[in-house]
Amino acid sequence: MKVNDLNPYRLGRRPGQQGPRPLSGDQGRVEKLVTGKASNTKNSNTNNTVASTNEIRLRKEILTIGTWNVRTLWEAGKLDLLRHELKRFRYDIIGASENRWTGKGETATGDFIWSGEENIHANGVGFLL
């Protein structure tokens, strides 16, 4: 047998698989976190089988967030194009970089919030909601 063939781990276990195992009292909690359903476990205090019907509730709405380097929104009509793309790709929020607007604020409709340089049309970020 070669020295390189020796396995330092018992039973072929990998380092990621080693470590403490869940206690029997925590077994139901661990299974619920993994599967979303509670399992039947014995309660150590009363020795009765406890069944729980709790299930994870899934949201039907998904929030979609994206980022976009718009290069500039300083030209007329660029913000309207960005609004169109928001609807087209079904984003809920877009983080826009390099919008090149001065100061900070929000549009009259409140759907675009930005922050940029104070005096020059350079840099700047914003959120389209």
Can you give keywords for this protein?
16% helix, alpha+beta, 129 residues, 5-stranded mixed beta sheet, 2 helices
Describe this structure in words.
The protein is built from 2 helices and 7 strands, in the order αβββαββββ. With 129 residues, it is α+β, with helices and mostly antiparallel strands. The protein folds into 2 domains: 48 residues, no CATH class; 64 residues, no CATH class. The strands form 2 sheets. The chain has a 5-stranded mixed β-sheet, with helices on one face. The longest helix is centred in the middle third of the chain and has 11 residues.
Topology:
Blueprint: H1 27-35, E1 41-42, E2 49-50, E3 65-69, H2 78-88, E4 93-97, E5 104-106, E6 112-115, E7 125-128
Q: Reading side by side through the largest sheet, how are the strands ordered?
A: 3-4-7-6-5
**Proportion of beta-strand residues:** 15-25%
Radius of gyration computed on alpha carbons: 28 Å
Tell me about the biggest sheet? 5 strands, mixed
Average pLDDT, all residues: 73
Overall 3D form: elongated
Structural class based on helices, strands and sheet pairing: alpha+beta
Regions with pLDDT < 50 over 5+ consecutive residues? 9-13, 46-50
What is the H/E string?
A: HEEEHEEEE
Helicity level, as a percent range?
10-25%
Figure out the total of helices. Answer: 2
Quick gist of this model?
It contains two helices and seven strands.
